[in-house]
Amino acid sequence: MAKIELLNITKRFGKFTALDNVNLEIKDNEFFVLFGPAGAGKTTLLNTVAGLVMPEEGLVKFNGEIMNKVDPSHRNVAMVFENYALYPNLTVYENIASPLRSPLYKKDDATIDKEVHRVAKILRIDHLVERLPSQLSNGQKQRVAIGRALVRNPNVFLMDEPIAHLDAKLRHHMRSELKEMQSSFNSTVIYVTHDFLEAVSLGDRIAIINEGKIVQVGTREEVYYTPCNEFVATLVGEPEINLVDGRLVVDNGKYYVEVMQKGYLMPLPENSGIIKKLVDSGITEYHLGFRPNNVKYTFQKQDGLLRGTVYSFESIGNKAVLIAKIGDQFLRMIAPNDLQVKLDQDVYVELPISKATFFNAQTTQFIGTSDEAAIYRLVQEQLSKGVQ
Amino acid sequence: MRRKRMINNAVKNGLLALYAIFALFPLFWMVLISFKSDAQMFNTTFIFDPTLENYEAVLLRTDYFKYFFDSVIVSVIAVLVSVLAGVPAAYALARYNFKKKEDLAFTILSFRFAPEILVVLPLFMIYQKIGLYDTYFGLIWVYQLITMPLLIWVIRGYFEDISVEIEHAAMVDGYTWWQVFLKRLLPLIKPGLVSASLLAFIFAWNNFTFPLMLSGTKVETITVASLKYIASDTVHYGQMAVAATVSALPAVIFALCIQKHLVRGLSFGAVKG
Question: A263 with A225, same domain?
Fold first, then answer.
């Protein structure tokens, strides 16, 4: 197991910069998630760690040792490829056994047999070991690809969307299995995903990557409660965070934000630090982020609430997403599945100013949050981690 | 309905039989006259006194086997050289991006475009000058024009079908590049390699123009040697037929052995499913 460091990594493909001055430190035994949209450079970053891609600039270090010139076979990394990369002419058994038969990591036949059957059992493919990859479904292929990594005891597991093609139930099972495996083997894992749920449920820390740059690195709480900019805020969280324009208004020494429509003022919490942060930012135009689960709604007419119409109502499993149209803006909120609602009916929405996240309207950078409890929780967590 | 199907089948089989006769008749005729004596050559068709005289004359009383092995040496080594040089070339064309890659690939293919008779005249002059005339090396060298393009184009397609991640996976599994190539890639390109090599061998074996012009006394392939049976007084068609029949054997045997794989190997990709 190893600590992985990436220092100033830059990788270009022709004129396209896939990785732009990336710095990361992945701790020993950490489950580290790379999370970002398609084409962000996640796979390239993984390939750089594996040695399959040579960065133009920067250093790759394993336990402090520079690995740039070490070829992939000697780095002792196990990798799960997004397109499986199974050997089509070998059976599932031989595919999984492949690393244990290689000259570098050679084991005797009895060990190989034991290991292959052990991981096949975990992955629920023990009945398929005699098949060829062409006789498998995509989900099964993906599990074989995971199996080929799990038979090893490498410096680091590199996983490129390893469970993206499994069905929902199996994905859930594999998620807990991977987490379990990681904690019981004390292994370092770098895990690439574009699925928010996977990222937060698996990652000790999450690195959000976009257009070849690391945008933010933090725990799931950090990226959720204190996203460093609007991009992170919209990426983390399902359904997506509501972003609305806001303007700082000072009236009789009291601070308000005006949102959604002219004259709709919301008083800022007096004793929270957010007022000072907003004033210090030197600007008056903001974007306010409201998580859909915090937005309240009612169908009874009520003064002081924003009036809108129901734009859509869509079930997402055990809950539903209600979208209200207010003026020309849309607000997403969480509603119970069995809610009786007609399209275009009136709805009254309350934005929870005490749980708002503020972003600079020009730069989209994070300014602060009025949810002090969230900050408090984060601080507590950092402290308890520091004590460990 | 049933009647219709029967007629259908009869027509199909009839056409196939017709084609079989069309395709096989020259071969049949060649074998037939190889058993005829010179005296009966022109005045008999199917009924004659079969004789092994021609076989005796060709196989025992001339240097036939020397020519035969000259052909074997030149063709086999030409194909081996093509495999050794062509497989890495095909890999490079499939995997790496470099300037003028497609131009280079096309140039290689275009070696097959020029009529041999056009190329062979300047080659004859050059070979005379640099001492390659009438040598094994000279013929093997010029045979690359025939064998190499075919091999490179077939194998390149195979490499392109293999996703680069398979190579990456094997490297991560702990294999060095050479081991990846031998243990993981070679089995995948084998069908293409075998069929392309055999086809290249047949082309090389059947070639006539190059050995006719670029060799003569020390090295003489079977295709050229067959002409020897045109004597100054008469053409020994029977003996020529023997020479041709025996020389056609390797190609026919190979083609029959790999018939199934030949079509699949040349048309299918490496990674199925």
Answer: no
Q: How far apart are CA A320 and CA A88, in angstroms?
A: 43
d(CA A291, CA A331): 10
Cβ–Cβ of B273/A134 closer than 8 Å?
A: yes
**What residues of B are in contact with residue A135 (Cβ under 8 Å)?**
273
**What is the per-residue pLDDT across A76-102, written as a single tens digit (0 to 9) for each?**
999 999 888 999 999 999 999 999 999
Which domain covers residue A370, as residue numbers? 243-387
Residue B242 amino acid letter: V
- Measure the CA–CA gap between B119 and B95, rounded to whole angstroms: 32
d(CA A19, CA A12): 7
Kindly report the CATH class assigned to B61-267: mainly alpha
Residue with tokens 């005797």: A108
Where among A203, A234, A265 does a domain terminate? Answer: A234
Chain B residues interacting with chain A (CB cutoff of 8 angstroms): 163, 165-166, 168-177, 179, 184, 187-188, 270-273
Model's pTM, two decimal places? 0.81
Single-letter residue type at A24: L
Among B162, B172, B181, the strongest candidate for a mutation testing the A interface, having the largest count of A CBs within 10 A, is B172
pLDDT tens for each residue of B173-194: 999 989 999 999 999 998 889 8
Which of B172, B176, B177 shows the shortest C-beta gap to A79?
B172
CA dist A362 and A134 (Å) reads: 52
How many Å apart are CA A192 and CA A1, to the nearest integer? 19
Separation in Å, CA B264 to CA A173, B154, B175, B193: 42, 12, 30, 12
For residues A31 and A203, the answer to whether their CB atoms sit within 8 Å is yes
- Give chain A's contact residues with B (Cβ, < 8 Å): 47, 50-52, 71-73, 76-79, 81, 83, 85-89, 98-99, 102-105, 133-135, 148
Q: What is the CATH number of the domain that holds A346?
A: 2.40.50.140
